[in-house]
Amino acid sequence: QVNMTEARRSAGRAGVMKEMDEDSMIVFSPEGEAKHTVTVFTDIDCPYCRKLHQEVGKMNEMGIAVRYMAYPRAGVGSASYDKAVSVWCADDRQEAMSTAKNGGKVEPSSCENPVKQHMAMGEKVGVRGTPAIFLEDGRMLPGYVPAERLAKILEQE
User: Fold this and answer.
1) CA–CA distance, 112 with 65 (Å, rounded to integer)
2) CA-CA to 81 of 20 to 30 Å: which in 42, 60, 99, 118?
3) pLDDT tens, residue by residue, 83-96
């Protein structure tokens, strides 16, 4: 049996994901060509988002690119929102993301950033919690998924 509603939602989300500009994301890419790409709506203070980030290196080794979009669950003006902005405004966004995800302090800063747009996009595609992992076909995997399991899911596409 196939859930026709979910299949239709996935197709719509896949279209939305393809329209999104990678320049507005923080991307962790594997060496060489990526076999798969996932888009993750993340909250810097979310424990399961931090756990997922610990596996990004392993995902990259498996040929999986990870595209992060900010989704501070506490909303605009919260400490999590401010951290997301500071990460985006850092000179090295990947390093700042890793520092923040490991509980370190990122220098507070402000600049033109896509955090509000990321949050609006998350609402549009149905994000209700973090991490929310979107596959290339538009399927959403809510919550933490270990790297090995994610790789198996991607290989079954």
Assistant:
1) 25
2) 60
3) 999 999 999 999 99
